[in-house]
Write a structure and sequence with these properties.
alpha+beta, about 15% helix, 5-stranded antiparallel β-sheet
């Protein structure tokens, strides 16, 4: 309603530049092979880091490494603050770190290295265990992210281009 056009099932295949400034994109759509704009906002997620816009423009870190895990949507979670994203690490988790991203007062999205780690936290004696003890998974899926997820790339803005979200290696 504010004037943005959305094109579903359309893949960006390249950037259009004029004098080194990004002025648009090329696409996979036969009826719209080029799209021009004053600015391109790259929100292509982790794909951008692997082989999309961030990679094309050399904005990713040299030798970027990736790790995997599971994303678990939970309900019946205790003591969530809907506007607070929690990050548990160190002695507060069995290994690595756990992100708790509230959806409302009783449900959230969490990220664990393995399903066994989720069960260990849920049934363990960690600070997060109190919140998760009665939780029920609604959905689980594999996820992949950079090993340093949350540490924004050194450069996320170029002339005519802005990286955002996971495309900028940022969650939050």
């Amino acid at each position: 309603n504010a004037g943005a056009d959305l094109f579903v099932n359309t893949r960006v295949t390249g950037l259009l530049k004029q004098d080194g400034v990004v002025i648009g994109v090329t696409t996979s759509a036969t009826g719209m092979p080029e799209v021009y704009g004053k600015i391109v906002i790259a929100a292509d997620g982790m794909y951008g880091t692997l082989k999309g816009i961030a990679k094309w423009e050399g904005l990713t870190r040299a030798n970027q490494t990736f790790t995997g895990g599971i994303s678990v949507v939970l309900t019946r979670v205790h003591d969530l603050e809907p506007d607070v994203i929690e990050f548990h690490c160190g002695a507060f988790t069995p290994k690595g770190s756990v992100l708790v991203w509230p959806r409302d007062a009783v449900s959230c999205v969490t990220y664990f290295t393995t399903l066994a780690e989720f069960e260990q936290v849920k049934n363990g004696d960690y600070l997060l265990s109190r919140k998760l003890k009665d939780s029920v998974p609604l959905r689980m899926e594999g996820c992949r992210h950079t090993a340093d997820m949350g540490v924004r790339f050194p450069e996320i803005v170029k002339d005519g281009l802005i990286l955002t979200g996971s495309a900028a290696n940022w969650r939050g």
